[in-house]
């Protein structure tokens, strides 16, 4: 890649980032978009800072960056939790690591590489003059590169060790502060056999743990096949939503000048009919919830609660039966993290699910070989002209070649792999994981392996082979040496990839264009005139962490090979940090006993793992039930 192409790529990405960030700074000040940009604040009952309109809000500003940077880790931990803090510290780790590497690489290695060759650089890749390939073979200067490699490795391991200790301390502190969480007292038990005497699994659970854990066992919650109940509950939610919509329309018609009394009466009549249907459906749901009806659909799965954390940990981490496929125990996920429908999948079938998912992810990775190779063909324009002569028409338009070789390959690659995280999270949903956190971790792993295989290794291999494809055919034994000497030529492509993924990608992440379009569409169509609700959602870790990890891998590999890439990575992590900072055991037992909280914590644990289909139902209408509400009233 020519230096001109790299400058064009940087200019385009910087221009797009400035445009998108300016648009964000304007839209975030408009009251209409408060549910998008101030969702967490509104969900907690706070008012938005922007209630009235004035023309100053149409001017872009950058003070949101300074406000975001001033946020402390304690504030993040208190408001968003430890997971978000770890996520933010991933960017801080990248900043600390690559700032030091950039200073040493640019001040020491870059001049060394540029002056390392005694022969003028005649390569078509003019950026090669700043890489290790410009050092003559057998030169003593390579000892400097080796020393820098040792320094980078030791410094990286020191930062990782320090980061691990800090996060471990915060994790222990968090466990001390969350002493009442039910998952600390509960384990998940699978593959429960039938009781020989009563032919029920609930009885078997009680007998087994009363016998083997008599001093710590407290109680259990057997799970049931509630598919039919789930369908009825969905129908009840749908009817409740229709009643709320009709109530809103009826009140609107009553106070509208252009409507008659008969229109409002029609809505009231329809609403009463739906209320009758909802009442009948609620009676049916309560009838099915009766234990005598539902005991016939027991699943071989239960949540078992203990009277101490120590007892729960011992039971979760020890084998309970001589047959390893019976009485399988593990630490219970948080109640809000449980994927209830996946608990109905038999444990022995899970390996088959995982194999199918691995095969599907592998096929997806193989399928993307085509676009990645095509992208490298565009990037290697000089070689492409020899294999595809019509491509020479690009030279007829001034500056077009710089755009095509500098910006287009990375833009096409980022566009193609945009759908990959969504495809992987879809596959992870089919893998049978019992918690959303495990599902997200699995999706993160699959996306990362995909990126390493396709974006990193395949870009190296395809780009290098296209560069020397003729020689490789005639001298196949020299392929490893040729690949090793050609790897540095891919540094310019990875620089443009980091620019596009960082500047344009992070800018679009904070703007949230998809959510803006969805909110605008709803506001002017089916939700017109209704109260807007904030869009509160968790961070899509599977869509962000693998890409950040890939950029770290690229930086570590190319720190010695091409130090010119390191300052771009510093900018990548700085922008990512600003964007995402903006958005959104035995010792504890002794403390609980001392404070008199142990019994209360155990009681909460008993109630927390009740399946959704068995929870008390309130249809949100007066006189229907006195139990805890399941469907919120209008």
Automatic annotation (TrEMBL):
One Gene Ontology CC term in the entry: membrane
InterPro entries: Csc1-like, CSC1/OSCA1-like_7TM, CSC1/OSCA1-like_cyt, CSC1/OSCA1-like_N
Bilayer topology: Multi-pass membrane protein
Compartments, record wording: Membrane
Principal subcellular localisation of the protein: membrane
GO MF term list: calcium-activated cation channel activity
Cross-referenced Pfam families: PHM7_cyt, RSN1_7TM, RSN1_TM
Keywords from the UniProt entry: Calcium, Ion channel, Ion transport, Membrane, Transmembrane, Transmembrane helix, Transport
Family affiliation: Belongs to the CSC1 (TC 1.A.17) family.
Protein name: Hyperosmolality-gated Ca2+ permeable channel 2.5 isoform X3
């Amino acid at each position: 890649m020519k230096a001109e192409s790299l400058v064009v790529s940087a200019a385009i990405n910087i221009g797009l980032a400035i445009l998108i960030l300016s648009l964000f700074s304007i839209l975030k000040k408009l009251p209409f978009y408060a549910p998008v940009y101030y969702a967490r604040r509104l969900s907690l009952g706070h008012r938005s800072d922007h209630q009235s309109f004035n023309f100053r809000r149409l001017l872009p500003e950058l003070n949101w960056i300074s406000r975001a940077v001033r946020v402390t880790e304690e504030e993040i931990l208190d408001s968003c939790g430890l997971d978000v803090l770890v996520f933010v510290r991933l960017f801080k780790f990248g900043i600390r690591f690559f700032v030091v590497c950039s200073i040493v690489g640019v001040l020491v290695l870059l001049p060394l590489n540029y002056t390392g060759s005694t022969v003028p650089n005649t390569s078509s890749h003019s950026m090669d003059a700043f890489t290790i390939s410009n050092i003559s073979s057998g030169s003593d200067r390579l000892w400097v590169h080796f020393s820098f490699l040792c320094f980078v490795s030791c410094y990286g391991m020191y930062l990782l060790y320090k980061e691990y200790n800090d996060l471990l301390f915060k994790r222990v502190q968090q466990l001390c502060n969350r002493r009442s969480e039910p998952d600390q007292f509960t384990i998940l038990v699978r593959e429960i056999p039938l009781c020989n005497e009563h032919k029920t699994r609930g009885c078997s659970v009680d007998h087994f743990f009363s016998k083997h854990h008599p001093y710590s066992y407290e109680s259990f919650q057997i799970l049931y096949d509630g598919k039919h109940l789930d369908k009825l509950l969905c129908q009840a939610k749908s009817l409740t939503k229709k009643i709320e919509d009709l109530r809103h329309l009826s009140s609107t018609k009553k106070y509208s000048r252009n409507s008659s009394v008969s229109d409002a009466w029609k809505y009231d009549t329809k609403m009463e009919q739906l209320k009758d249907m909802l009442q009948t459906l609620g009676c049916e749901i309560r009838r099915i919830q009766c234990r005598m009806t539902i005991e016939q659909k027991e699943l071989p799965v239960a949540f078992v609660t203990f009277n101490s954390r120590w007892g729960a940990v011992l039971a979760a981490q020890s084998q309970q039966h001589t047959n390893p496929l019976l009485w399988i125990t593990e630490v219970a996920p948080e109640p809000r993290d449980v994927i209830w429908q996946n608990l109905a999948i038999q444990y022995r079938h899970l390996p088959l699910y995982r194999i199918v998912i691995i095969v599907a992810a592998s096929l997806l990775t193989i399928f993307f070989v085509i676009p990645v190779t095509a992208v490298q063909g565009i990037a290697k324009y000089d070689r492409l002209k020899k294999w595809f002569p019509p491509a020479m028409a690009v030279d007829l338009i001034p500056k077009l070649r710089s755009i095509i070789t500098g910006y287009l390959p990375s833009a096409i690659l980022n566009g193609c792999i945009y759908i990959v995280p969504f495809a992987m999270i879809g596959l992870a949903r089919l893998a049978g994981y019992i918690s959303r956190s495990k599902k997200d971790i699995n999706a993160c792993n699959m996306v990362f392996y995909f990126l390493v295989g396709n974006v990193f290794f395949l870009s190296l291999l395809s780009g290098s082979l296209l560069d020397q494809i003729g020689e490789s055919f005639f001298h196949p034994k020299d392929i490893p040496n040729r690949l090793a000497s050609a790897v540095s030529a891919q540094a310019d492509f990875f620089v443009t990839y980091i620019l596009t993924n960082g500047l344009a990608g992070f800018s679009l992440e904070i703007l949230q264009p998809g959510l803006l379009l969805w909110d605008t569409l709803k506001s002017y169509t089916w939700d017109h005139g209704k109260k807007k609700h904030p869009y509160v959602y968790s961070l899509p870790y599977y869509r962000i962490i693998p890409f950040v990890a890939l950029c770290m891998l690229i930086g570590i590999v190319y720190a010695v090979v091409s130090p010119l890439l390191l300052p771009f990575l510093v900018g990548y992590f700085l922008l990512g940090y600003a964007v995402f900072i903006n958005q959104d055991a035995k010792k504890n037992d002794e403390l609980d006993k001392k404070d008199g909280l142990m019994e209360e914590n155990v009681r909460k644990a008993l109630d927390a793992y009740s399946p959704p289909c068995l929870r008390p139902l309130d249809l949100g209408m007066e006189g229907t039930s006195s139990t805890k509400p399941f469907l919120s009233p209008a």
